[in-house]
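User: Could you go from structure to sequence for me? I need the amino acid at each position, not a summary. Structure tokens:
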């Protein structure tokens, strides 16, 4: 199969890491098709948890990521009035998995992946929006049609053409909350500690993630219907109205972020599907199993997919068998993560005052050491040694 023509649809985290992983295994004929006009990326930052940095190490990407990523020590939970509720010990998770969890801007991550792709001479064809997959071919909106032996659907959660082909439809599920995401950088120090701060309101949440002393990203979130009036308003004004009276750190962070670096996102995930492949098409990353940002694991799972997919395709001579084995290996873990993300979101975006009070009281009594170990156990499932 090493000479098979492989097309990867989508140059996101999943598509790029899959191309790198397949190349490492000796696959020679890989092309990536991407609808965007250039290598730009939307979004602020992400945490590459230790399960993802484990894989990035295997893909020889970790050295570059460590240069620009920030080590996270704790994930602190606080009320909107800055009362401490408890903290997930990220160092404990990292110790159990054997790698560091690193926060990174989307732009930096994208640049590292794209540079690697260039070094490996893998072609990315931008400005190619797939419209349909049929009879082993992909049809693009520029009238091009391309045939491939293997098509990897890495075209994300919202409009995946590959998912539509495999599953018969592609219907992401709106989970009744929105995110305003932002990224900021300054010449003056902004952050003193490498801790994620997770402020809980009632139907509202604000998270702050430092990357370095001078750089970090954040997300304000609120339970809202689709197309709410907030969508059309000035992001910063609204954020100050909603979160400006919470911890003073939040107000400063919002005010210090440039308007053009703030985005409003309606948040969707997917119901898990039990079939990720059809004929020569296999889904990876969000196209196969998108989880909410509250899972913290979407990109990390796409990176794990890349590693396992390439390993299985390397060993297995029969394409269909390879796809079956890949899904079998990945279904349970990704489904648990998707459902955990939904459950956490249900609790965070519940608007009932009584519920929120009880939730915060319970949070005070959680055994965070055990929680950290439980998270590490789940995230380390299926990882290479
Ligand atoms: C606010 C927010 C915060 C998050 N934080 C984290 C985090 O901290 N940690 C984490 O692990 N995950 C996080 N995630 C999830 C993570 O962003 C996704 O799971 C991850 O980007 C999935 O990667 P992907 O490559 O599968 O899809 P994407 O990154 O969506 O890439 C899909 C690519 O396919 C292209 N494409 C789409 N349709 C077509 C088409 N028809 N033709 C050609 N190209 C197409 C798109 O342009 C895109 O480049 C977060 C998500 C959100 C929304």
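Assistant: Here is the amino acid at each position, in order:
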């Amino acid at each position: 199969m090493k000479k098979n023509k492989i097309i990867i649809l989508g140059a996101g985290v999943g598509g790029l890491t899959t191309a790198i992983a397949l190349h490492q295994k000796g696959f020679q004929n890989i092309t990536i098709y991407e609808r965007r006009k250039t290598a730009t990326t939307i979004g602020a930052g992400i945490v590459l948890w230790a399960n993802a940095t484990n894989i990035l190490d295997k893909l020889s990407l970790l050295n570059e990521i460590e240069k620009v990523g920030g080590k996270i020590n704790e994930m602190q939970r606080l009320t909107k009035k800055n009362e401490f509720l408890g903290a997930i010990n990220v160092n404990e998770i990292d110790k159990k998995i054997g790698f560091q969890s690193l926060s990174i801007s989307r732009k930096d991550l994208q640049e590292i992946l794209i540079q690697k792709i260039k070094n490996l001479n893998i072609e990315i064809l931008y400005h190619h929006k797939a419209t349909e997959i049929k009879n082993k071919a992909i049809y693009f909106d520029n009238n091009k049609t391309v045939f491939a032996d293997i098509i990897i659907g890495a075209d994300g959660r919202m409009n995946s053409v590959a998912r539509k082909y495999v599953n018969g439809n592609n219907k992401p599920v709106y989970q009744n909350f929105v995110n305003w995401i932002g990224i900021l950088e300054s010449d003056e120090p902004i952050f003193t500690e490498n801790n994620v701060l997770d402020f809980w309101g009632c139907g509202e949440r604000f998270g702050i993630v430092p990357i370095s002393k001078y750089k970090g990203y954040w997300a304000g979130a609120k339970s809202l219907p689709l197309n709410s009036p907030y969508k059309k308003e000035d992001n910063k004004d609204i954020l100050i109205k909603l979160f400006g009276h919470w911890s003073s750190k939040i107000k400063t962070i919002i005010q210090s972020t440039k308007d053009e670096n703030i985005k409003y996102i309606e948040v969707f995930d997917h119901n898990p599907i039990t079939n990720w492949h059809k004929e020569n098409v296999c889904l990876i990353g969000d196209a196969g199993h998108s989880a909410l940002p509250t899972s913290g694991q979407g990109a990390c799972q796409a990176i794990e997919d890349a590693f396992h997919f390439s390993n299985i395709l390397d060993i297995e001579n029969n394409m269909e068998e390879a796809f079956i084995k890949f899904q079998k290996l990945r279904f349970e873990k990704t489904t648990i993560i998707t459902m955990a993300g939904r459950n956490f979101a249900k609790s965070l975006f519940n608007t009932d005052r009584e519920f929120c009070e009880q939730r915060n009281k319970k949070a005070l009594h959680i055994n965070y050491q055990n929680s950290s170990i439980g998270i590490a156990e789940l995230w380390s499932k299926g990882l290479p040694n």
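One structural detail worth keeping in mind: The chain has 13 helices and 19 strands.
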